[in-house]
Amino acid sequence: MTELAENTRTTPGAESDRAALSVHGLWKVFGPNADKLVGTPDLELSRQELQAKSGHVIGVRDVSFDVAPGEVFVVMGLSGSGKSTLVRLLTRLIEPTAGTVLLDGEDLTGMGEDQLRDIRRRKVSMVFQHFGLLPHRKVIDNIAFGLEVRGEDKAGRRSRAQEMVDLVGLSGYEMNYPDQLSGGMQQRVGLARALAGDPAVLMFDEPFSALDPLIRRDMQKEVIRLHHEVGKTMVFITHDLDEALKLGDRILIMRDGAIVQVGAPDEIIGAPADSYVRDFTAEVPKSHVLTLKWVMRAPSSPDEGAGAPPLPDTTVVREAARAVLAADGPVRVVDASGTVVGVVDDEDILRVVVVESHDEPAPASAS
Amino acid sequence: MTTTLAPPPPAASTKEEQPRSAPAPSRHTGRKLLVVLVLWLVAWAVLRGKQTLALANADTTGLHEWFNGIRDKVQLLGQDNWFFHGVLGTVASALDSFVGAVQAHVSTVVPGDWVGWFGVLALAMWLTYTLAGLRSTVLVTAVLLFLGVAGLWTDGLDTLIVTLVAVVICIVIGLPLGIAMSRSRRTSAIVTPALDVMQTMPSFAYLTPIALFFGIGPACAIVLTLIYALPPLVRITEHGLNSVAENTVEAGRSLGVTKGQLLRQVQLPMAKRTIVVGINQCTMAALSMATIAALVNGPGLGKPVIAALQTLNVGAASVAGLGIVLIAIMLDRTTTAASERSAPGGQRVAAVGSPGVFGGRTLVLEKLPRWATEDTGRGSAARMRLTPGGRRLVLGLILLPALVGAFYSTRYLQLSQFPDLSGVPVLNEITAGPLSTHINDLTDAVVNALTGVTNGFKNFVTSVMLNPLQSVMSDLPWWVMALVLLAVAYLLGGWRPAAVTVACEAVILGTGLWYDAMVTLTMTLVATIIVMLVAVVLGVAMGRGRRTDTVIRPFLDGFQTIPAFVYLVPALALFAATRFTAIMAAVAYAVPIATKLVADGVRGVAPTTVEAARSTGITRWQMISKVQLPMAREALVLATNQGLLYVLSMVVIGGMVGGGSLGYLIVQGFVQGQLFGKGLAAGIAITALGIMLDRIARYAAARYGR
């Protein structure tokens, strides 16, 4: 848990007054008397025990985190871990049992129905796993739907929707109905609908889980591209670790409704919080994720590695490999300020690369 | 993401390609319909009152006289004809004598018969307990005792006898037919349209010809009931067999079963519950016809209802109607409970608990773990269940007192003939006479209190909707209206329903009852509009609120079990004998089904879509108008279609209470010999009208219910 606290502290922009989204002590308990349960010792029970005892099910257990403006924050967990419930608590599509959600400094949990509706209309949009499109409306009217419900005139919303159609690459399909499109294209409509209202935060609930792998990869690229173009804060729910590592600036791992670990992708791989995280990150090609920070060692002498140009400590191992292997000796690793924080040599690199190519512990003679 | 960011990829490089289907061109249906409406109104204004083909009540056409002639011939020469006498006559007399015998020995009360009232009660209790459990048994006992006390014992049992005989015949014919249809696509293709016609035709329409062929009496009642009650059973049986999971059937095949084994050991057991639901539907349909069959002298509770309706005696009609409703509830609950019992899940639960020895045979009480019962989480106590062997033993034991009761009921007058309770203090109040007086008093009070409201409503609807519409539809040359209907059929559904419309119009014209048919059509449309207004309001409320649904749905279920023509009684009480009465009865009859369909449609809107809409910050009204109703369009169209057919069948029955037009002509056809042919023609016209409306609605549904 100390690691967790550390990770949270080292995150950029973590102070809650500047965070785009700040969640504190969020609980969701399903069941008839959920409200009365908050604060009782029953909540310390495990999910199974609580369910057996009182018929209540814990969806989300005491979750707190901050999302910085412009960050892509991924919530990752296996099915049943509470991640989809969590994302719905964030816009109160499901009412939280306890805790607060601050969006851009405003407390969502205390809002009345009207205020909340206004937030949903202007500040947050969601993209859903099963798209949630309206089958009786054309693509362009689906995209304009959010604008329509907030009362914009037809000409204005049509032209805005047309921009979104072009942005997500659906030009030419505006007048089709959703069921005339493939799954990937339908999700592009979902994406365009979410973007049309120009929200501050975009929420994705497993948006690509229903798509086949090739299309999924395509859509992931699309999200990365859009993030670059529009720079929105994104909260992204997924059960796919590769997707989490590919998209996330930071990743929150959930299990049984609670946080297991929060951190940048290399922190998750390099310093898994427990055996649960270690187990399911075991298959990840580490050289694609780990940065030099995780493989460097302290220099044995102040001069060590001075012969080669230094590398930043945020460089991914795979990309540093060529430079390190080509150098005659060790290479210096520097942090953002240019201070030398360590050195790497061939063996440090190969230990990471070779382990995964043989899928067994690297023999000492590998170098 | 920080270091490996690729530049924005060219969007179309790996993007899946989708054939760009051209959006369908708009049909401008609304605008075209408006044009038709304008032309229609202009034609009405100019040609009003000409060539309306109105026929006075006592007038007949050549066709009607020709029908009369046929009737005379059948009655005169039918004695010697091999078909009428040989085939139909044999069937009719067999049914007549069978029902007559059962009636004579069971429902009527002569000591020394097969069984008296006490025996009937005892055996019915045992049978219900065996098939449906304790709660149903209590219900059956209460209903039968009420029938006895209220003086409806004989008529009530007659109704039950006719219904049950019809259901048994339905099962004998319907099950094999359903099985054959599920096994052969061709059989299904041939039989389905026939079932369609049997269900679309308003039951009133075929009273006359059937009465002609089978003569009035029990046989005719049973044949009428068969026509109406058979289709649901056949359909549900076919559906049940077809919806046995494909992989189960495949698994069976992979083990090398024959077709017969597959049917007996896989499909029938798995479809058992659905088939019992089919029997439930069949029973309810049979009951509702068994009461209408009173018009052709079928025995049962329909007779007192009709007699009371004709003298506008609401109290007497209510008592007999109440008997019908109670029998309906009793049969519905019992067959429903029986179908729930036949669920395969109940037999699979393994025995848990300690065995005990009882009467030399092992009797195991199964103590079900809490998670295995339906009430999981509701804190109910564990249930006790008997093993099959133990169950059979217990049932056998309690059959004995039932048989003893049945035996003694033939020996003692008090047990044979339902005792007259008019002297007993409390029960006296619910015997027939006082009860109908009470109801009459109550009705008078209610009607007096409501007369302002009901009359206001009646006058409003009559003057704002009914009269103008009727004038526009019937007070103009027949060919204008025929063209309007044709145009509407074409615009809404394309050339197929237009072709059907032409054919049906030709038939209606041929019957010489064009004017009356248009009046009936007007009433049907007005009632359907009211039905849909109510159904949308109630259905949306039910579809959106689970609590509203739990409150309203039992009422709708209850109303749906009530046989059609009982609805006439309260309508008559409130609105006296007018056209409007028939319309209100039709509305009451059609609202439950239409409401349920709308509610299910609204409920059926994908939750992901509702959630997605909610995430955009939608208001409640926007949710209803922009998401839920448009997405429930299919259900709305279906509800309109069903509402239309229900309304039509009821508007026609309304002929008995001043509904006028076609229904009235059919009733007159029974009453007055010289109007027989006209009544028959009215039946044909109704059928044509029903088929026309159904086809237009169906094709429109296929086109717009996407």
Characterise the protein shown here.
The complex is a heterodimer of chains A (367) and B (706). Chain A is an alpha/beta fold and 367 residues long. Helices cover 38% and strands 20% of the residues of chain A. Chain B is globular. Chain B contains 28 helices and three strands. In chain B, helix 26 runs antiparallel to helix 28.
Describe the SSE topology.
The complex is a heterodimer of chains A (367) and B (706).
Chain A: H1 2-10, E1 21-30, H2 34-37, H3 47-54, E2 57-67, E3 72-76, H4 83-90, E4 98-103, E5 106-107, H5 113-122, E6 124-127, H6 139-143, H7 145-149, H8 154-167, H9 183-196, E7 201-205, H10 213-230, E8 233-238, H11 241-247, E9 250-255, E10 258-263, H12 265-270, H13 275-281, E11 311-312, H14 317-326, E12 331-334, E13 340-344, H15 346-358
Helix pairs in contact in A: 8-9, 14-15
Chain B: H1 29-47, H2 62-77, H3 82-107, H4 117-132, H5 134-149, H6 153-183, H7 185-200, H8 207-214, H9 218-242, H10 246-254, H11 259-292, H12 302-310, H13 314-341, H14 345-348, E1 355-358, E2 361-367, E3 384-386, H15 388-409, H16 413-416, H17 432-474, H18 478-493, H19 495-511, H20 514-544, H21 546-561, H22 568-575, H23 579-603, H24 607-615, H25 620-631, H26 633-653, H27 661-671, H28 676-704
Antiparallel strand pairs in B: 1-2, 2-3
Helix pairs in contact in B: 1-18, 2-28, 3-6, 3-9, 4-5, 4-15, 5-13, 6-7, 6-9, 6-11, 7-9, 8-9, 9-11, 11-13, 12-13, 13-17, 13-22, 17-20, 18-19, 18-28, 19-28, 20-21, 20-23, 20-26, 21-23, 22-23, 23-26, 26-28, 27-28
